[in-house]
Amino acid sequence: MRVSSTGITSIGCVLLLALAGTLADTAAQTPSGGVSSGRSxxxxxxxxxxxxxxxxxxxxxxxxxxxxxxxxxxxxxxxxAGPAYANLGVVYMRGKQWTKALQALHKAKELMxxxxxxxxxxxxxxxxQNEFLKAIPAFESVVREQPEAVQPRYLLGLCxxxxxxxxxxxxxxxxxxxxxxENLPYLYVLANAAHRxxxxxxxxxxxxxxxxxxxxxxxxxxxxxxxxxxxEEYDMAIAEFEAAAKxxxxxxxxxxxxxxxxxRKQEYSQAREEFLxxxxxxPDLALNYDQLGxxxxxxQDDTNAEKSYREAISRDSRLVSSHLGLAKIYQRQKKYxxxxxxxxxxxxxDPERTEAHYLRGQALLRLGRKEEAKKEMAAAANPxxxxxxxxxxLMQEPQ
Length: 399
Description:
about 70% helix; about 400 residues; 2 strands; two-stranded antiparallel ribbon
């Protein structure tokens, strides 16, 4: 397994395909199965089961446009064809058309509420968009019904981890020890969550296993460095990341994490160089540009900071930190209306982000909207959420 643990996410589509294949026979035989007989626009007899099976085969062969056309044809014949909605959702997931995917999957869920695979894919669609709080209920429902299933439990644990629900993450992931204890990302997440939740025994066991399984590989040093980085042990983290870079200088996320460590130590020139190195390896990683924006901001280079934040948002419009970075730039430049626009977007994306409320309050105050500013400052005075170290190495699609 690569450094990324999210190769498991692709299983959801495969699982649903297999499920839909099973349902296809039922659908072809009975109207209640979700497919009824009908006629084409030309008046010729149409067999929806034929369209369904053809679409299923096209989907397996990744002929997405053809598959989508077949499943939509089935739905024209029978708008209550649950299996067709389910596989159409998978088609849109493959094409990263998340809004359409969720519309189709929620319709499939409405028609077939007892099918866990549909709820699993709903969770996956939210997960792939970093919408972890929205993914959690879907994964929880599957885990309740299938407590021994590895994939939904792993994904649920990761969602808890990214939502900073440390105790829930550790308790959800620990039962997977028998299946996943040779997996470096799993061990890193379990150790880190257990440490933050105060589960010393789980933390110690996962950390010891991480050392054993890692076998001095570049991947091991990457996750060992992340472990120290999350504990704010920056010199130890840098030593591990540099050891990883010595073994494999082009391994994804090594230079990104080195940049984060140097940034936390306020070593801005070193941080900039490391993020630029990672850009050369991963030019589409939005977080590289987001962190570069922070570096340039700290160096008072507003032009490059703004450019970097815009590059980040062009790749991931949900990056709250980039919207807040732009707001800080505009505040410094006394462009308060522009700053307010960015903070509005940040609060919409993450209502519990204290910094977003503070900066929004500052912009409102400068614009003379004192009552609104007062409310935002009150929200900022009651912090609810800690901003953790970003972990893109856990979120990438497998190569």
